[in-house]
Design goal:
Layout (H helix, E strand, L loop, with lengths): L1 E4 L4 H18 L3 E4 L33 H7 L3 E2 L3 E5 L16 E4 L12 H7 L8 H11 L2 E7 L3 H4 L1 H7 L4 H14 L3 E7 L2 H7 L6 E4 L8 H9 L2 E3 L4 H8 L8 E3 L20 E2 L1
Parallel strand pairs: 1-2, 1-5, 4-5, 6-7, 6-9, 7-8, 9-10, 10-11
Antiparallel strand pairs: 3-4
Helix pairs in contact: 1-10, 4-9, 9-10
């Protein structure tokens, strides 16, 4: 068996699951998920993140490491009485992961399709949404399918409000979005832009377009995955430096899709993002 530690938001959890599932397939073994990172800590402090993979058609099997919090805070490298740990050493792709053998506990971010591109079909099938969209999301879903829909994701939130996060990630500026939109306008006839953001009012005030557009702002909290679903059914995508919109674009099944992504994914110069953006995507 392989056990993969899940941390972070939805996009991060999807990368971790995809890498673990692909390696489990290579080894012909079972994949288990460790979601204890999202539990209340021993001091009673709740984790701000939650487990978010339950809306997908994945085979959810869970295992909780022995003495989880001791492992986390004291950096113990063995769990389950001797099960060794593989820790992803880089932000960029590491081929060492393919040397992971059976009965290993896996930690890392794995933010590259190189970890699972040889099992794309399986990963896409696992990440099918379990339930159909309802209400306004169903209306948007149908509307998107009837036009040359372009998703534009503007990630702000903690990228702006948290000084440490801003220092590490940075944000995509208006020039990035303006240049990306111009690229789309030069390649796509009659584009219709659907704008997704955790700060919709900022988008309304600052992002002006020459074509029809609308801001999607009805999905928050545990329903945020609905935005990813809507992004994935758009014909083309403009993504932020965010794993959330990365997956919205990657799950897009349009064989002729145009994906535009920021060339500079991280602001931190020590984080090498060379493997995050697939070769077929346009970097700006």
């Amino acid at each position: 068996m392989l056990i993969v530690q899940l941390t972070g938001g939805l996009g991060n959890q999807m990368f971790q699951y995809a890498a673990g599932k692909a390696q489990a397939l290579r080894l012909n073994t079972e994949l288990y998920l460790d979601k204890t990172h999202f539990l209340t800590t021993p001091l009673g402090k709740e984790n701000l993140r939650q487990y978010e993979l339950s809306q997908f058609c994945i085979n959810e099997k869970f295992k909780q490491p022995t003495f989880h919090w001791i492992k986390k805070y004291l950096k113990v490298k063995q769990v389950y009485g001797g099960l060794k740990t593989y820790v992803d050493p880089h932000v960029h792709f590491s081929g060492d992961f393919f040397n992971v053998t059976d009965n290993i506990y896996i930690e890392g971010f794995f933010q590259s399709e190189q970890y699972f591109k040889d099992n794309k079909a399986v990963i896409r099938n696992d990440f099918k949404f379990k339930n159909s969209p309802q209400g306004l999301n169903l209306e948007l879903f149908n509307k998107i399918q009837c036009c040359n829909a372009i998703s534009v994701h503007v990630r702000r939130g903690d990228y702006v409000s948290n000084a440490e996060t801003l220092k590490s990630h940075g944000i995509c500026g208006l020039d990035y979005y303006q240049n990306s939109i111009q690229q789309i306008e030069s390649k796509v006839e009659n584009p219709y832009f659907f704008l997704f953001s955790d700060e919709p009012e900022w988008v309304k005030q600052n992002l002006k377009l020459n074509h029809p557009s609308e801001v999607v702002s009805n999905n928050k909290g545990e329903n945020s995955f609905e935005d990813m679903r809507l992004m994935s059914v758009c014909k083309h995508n403009i993504v932020a430096n965010s794993s959330f919109s990365w997956w919205g674009a990657w799950l897009n099944n349009n064989p002729n899709k145009i994906i535009i992504a920021p060339k500079k994914w991280f602001l931190n110069p020590d984080w090498d993002s060379k493997d995050i953006i697939p070769d077929s995507w346009i970097k700006i």
